[in-house]
């Protein structure tokens, strides 16, 4: 009986320690990285393998759902999420020249060069600088959408440091891939708003358009998501600059062809912004990569697709974490 009580107490203590270790409500800190300050959170033990999460266009670190972060941490990772430059609580580029987004978007459609204050490779340098500042030598990377594009550059900049690459709903940026509808692009570019109320309605419209046709969104829920992001930080000019960084980017096919990092590519069959061939194309150009297509997934982390996404990603990350663990012994 004493043995049983001891074991139950031990299990309870282990569970409590795991819950404390993977608490997504940790403080947000900032660190200077070159010309910017980056806001970040570190969830998990510093001694665990690091997993860096890189968010997409206009997204803040809060757009990585807490429950997903906890599940990733529960696999034995130290999960690091951060705000890219120009969004959230990271540095905003206040001194940038005025931007005519419509003009630059037209140049992009005509195949002409696009001017941008900075590029995706600069943003990859930010991410690498963050890991330097945290004293993390080698790490895993998971990027979504624009974050996946940044992650591609990150793996190219520091191939010896990136242990594995997971790319979700992203693109190679190659010419000839299916384009999103002009209506969706218009929603994406619509950032000016005269009031908080209008801004929330616009963001809810965009979230709905990026969602899966197989899922009926709750408008009130979309407005709550929009409000959380708006009240934390609202910088439409910063999102415009990030969008210009994407438009100014040439094809990354040559970059992908030279990558030798273990890579998983995950894409949805119902993605309206980067249709499924974008993911197929990325996987086709990274030697040895794995491709997982999720039926019905669009271009958002929707609750209905949380488990299919985790089922695609967790075994891959777990396998590579174990490989790294045994290599270090």
UniProtKB/TrEMBL annotation:
<feature type="domain" description="AB hydrolase-1">
    <location>
        <begin position="49"/>
        <end position="299"/>
    </location>
</feature>
<dbReference type="GO" id="GO:0016787">
    <property type="term" value="F:hydrolase activity"/>
</dbReference>
<protein>
    <submittedName>
        <fullName>Alpha/beta fold hydrolase</fullName>
    </submittedName>
</protein>
<dbReference type="InterPro" id="IPR029058">
    <property type="entry name" value="AB_hydrolase_fold"/>
</dbReference>
<dbReference type="InterPro" id="IPR050471">
    <property type="entry name" value="AB_hydrolase"/>
</dbReference>
<keyword id="KW-0732">Signal</keyword>
<feature type="signal peptide">
    <location>
        <begin position="1"/>
        <end position="18"/>
    </location>
</feature>
<dbReference type="InterPro" id="IPR000073">
    <property type="entry name" value="AB_hydrolase_1"/>
</dbReference>
<dbReference type="Pfam" id="PF00561">
    <property type="entry name" value="Abhydrolase_1"/>
</dbReference>
<keyword id="KW-0378">Hydrolase</keyword>
């Amino acid at each position: 009986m004493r043995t049983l009580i001891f074991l139950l107490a031990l299990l309870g203590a282990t569970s409590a320690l795991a819950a404390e270790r993977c608490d997504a409500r940790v403080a947000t800190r900032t660190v200077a990285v070159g010309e910017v300050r980056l806001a970040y959170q570190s969830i998990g033990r510093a001694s665990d393998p690091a997993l860096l999460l890189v968010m997409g266009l206009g997204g803040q670190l809060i757009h990585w759902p807490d429950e997903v972060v906890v599940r990733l941490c529960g696999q034995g990772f130290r999960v690091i999420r951060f705000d890219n430059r120009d969004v959230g609580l990271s540095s905003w580029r206040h001194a940038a020249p005025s931007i005519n987004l419509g003009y630059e978007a037209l140049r992009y459609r005509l195949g002409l060069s696009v001017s941008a204050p900075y590029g995706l490779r600069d943003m990859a340098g930010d991410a690498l600088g963050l890991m330097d500042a945290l004293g993390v030598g080698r790490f895993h990377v998971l990027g979504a959408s624009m974050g996946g594009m940044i992650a591609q550059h990150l793996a190219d900049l520091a191939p010896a440091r990136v242990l594995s690459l997971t790319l979700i709903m992203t693109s190679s940026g190659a010419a000839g891939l299916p384009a999103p509808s002009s209506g969706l692009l218009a929603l994406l570019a619509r950032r000016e708003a005269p009031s908080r109320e209008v801004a929330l309605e616009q963001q809810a419209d965009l979230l709905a358009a990026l969602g899966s046709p197989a899922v009926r969104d709750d408008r009130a829920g979309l407005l709550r998501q929009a409000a959380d992001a708006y009240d934390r930080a609202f910088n439409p000019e910063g999102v415009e600059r990030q969008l210009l960084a994407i438009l100014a980017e040439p094809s990354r096919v040559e970059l992908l062809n030279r990558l030798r990092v273990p890579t998983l590519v995950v894409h949805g069959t119902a993605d309206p912004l980067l249709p499924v061939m974008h993911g197929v194309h990325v996987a086709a150009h990274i030697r040895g990569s794995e491709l997982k297509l999720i039926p019905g997934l669009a271009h958002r982390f929707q609750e209905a697709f949380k488990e299919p996404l985790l089922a695609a990603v967790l075994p891959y990350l777990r396998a590579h974490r174990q490989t790294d663990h045994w290599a270090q012994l």
